[in-house]
Specification:
The protein is an alpha+beta fold. It has 3 helices and 2 strands; from the N terminus they run ααββα.
Length: 81
């Protein structure tokens, strides 16, 4: 709901981001969140583990960045291709 309200205020997304988020939801994501700004960023998709392959297929050539939860708080991570 907050994303819908932000879109009504102004330009906070692009058609490509909207299309990608819609594809993730159609593939079984429970929710999606776009992160970042200035021509770059990420889309975080949340789904049951059994739906991961559906999301991967719907994401096409998008880069998948694996992540995990850390019990000890924030840690510095460097991810390179």
């Amino acid at each position: 709901d907050s994303w819908r309200l932000k879109r009504e205020i102004g330009s906070v997304s692009t058609p490509a981001v909207e299309s990608f988020c819609d594809a993730m939801l159609a593939a079984g994501a429970t929710g999606v969140k776009s992160l970042g700004a200035g021509g770059g960023g990420f889309v975080l998709a949340f789904a049951d583990p059994g739906r991961r392959e559906n999301l991967r297929a719907a994401a096409g050539s998008a880069l998948e960045v694996p992540f995990g939860f850390e019990k000890e708080g924030s840690v510095l991570v460097h991810y390179s291709l």
